[in-house]
Amino acid sequence: MADREAELDWDEANIRHLRRHRITPLEFQQVLNNGPFELDYQTEDGEDRYKSVGLTDGGRLLVIVWTNRNFRIRAVTAYAASSALRRVFEELLKGN
After folding, report:
1. Which residue blocks in the chain are alpha helix, DSSP H?
2. Which of 38, 35, 34 minimizes the C-alpha distance to 66?
3. What integer pLDDT is reported at residue 93 of this predicted model?
4. What pLDDT is stored for residue 84 in this prediction?
5. CA 51, CA 37: separation in Å to the nearest integer?
6. Helix 25-33 vs helix 12-20: crossing angle, to nearest 10
């Protein structure tokens, strides 16, 4: 992302949602801080949502969905990337 870490908006609801996908808040933040690739952007219920793919510090490849809310990044969901997306990610890395 940027030179400094972004402030994230956490509450029990989004932490619990990530937990169902076996993702921790720390892993979500690591993906953001490790320069993810943007996959998609859409507006849902009047809110801009971004989908990115990137690596945690431990090497897990995750898809993260997030929004900007009140000048903070709010996690919407996250999940392990599919094998097909892993191949795409590896090709993107070769191009950089």
Report:
1. 12-20, 25-33, 83-95
2. 38
3. 86
4. 95
5. 9
6. 90
Distance from C-alpha of 12 to C-alpha of 45, rounded to nearest angstrom: 21
Residue 9 β-bridge partners: 74
CB 1 within 8 A of CB 54: no
Residues 6+ positions from 47 with CB-CB distance below 8 Å: 67, 69
Six-digit token pair at 28? 């979500």
One-letter amino acid of 61: L
Q: Which amino acid is at 82?
A: S
88 phi and psi, to 5 degrees?
A: -60, -45
Q: Which residues of 1-35 are buried (b: 16+ CB within 10 A; e: fewer)?
A: eeeeeeeebbeeebeeebeeeebeeebbbbbbbee
Where the chain has pLDDT below 70, the residues are 1-5, 96
* Encoded tokens for 13: 């609801």
